[in-house]
Design goal:
The protein has a domain of about 45 residues. Helices cover about 25% and strands about 15% of the residues. It contains two helices and three strands, in the order H-E-E-H-E.
């Protein structure tokens, strides 16, 4: 935070935005969705890729075949199935 100087009081200095971005921004794995119609897009989560994979054939051009494929990021950790709480 930065405050204006009043009466000679020292202001709090804000670090440069570049330093803040470097600390906060961590690249996330990307899921790649590819359709047979030629459309491709990257997603930050598997859930988002699956959601768009369901919607794309419905919202695409009618009469065009849509075969959708989702590629996992190469370094994506495999999630183990969770045990039931019963």
């Amino acid at each position: 935070m930065a405050f204006a100087r009043r009466g000679g009081a020292a202001a709090l200095e804000r670090p440069p935005l570049r330093a803040f971005y470097a600390e906060v921004h961590v690249p996330k794995p990307r899921w790649l969705l590819t359709c047979s119609c030629g459309w491709t897009r990257e997603f930050s989560s598997q859930w988002a890729a699956e959601s768009v994979a369901k919607l794309h054939p419905k919202l695409g051009q009618p009469g065009t075949a849509h075969t959708v494929r989702i590629e996992e990021p190469p370094d994506a950790p495999r999630r183990e199935p969770e045990l039931p709480l019963a």
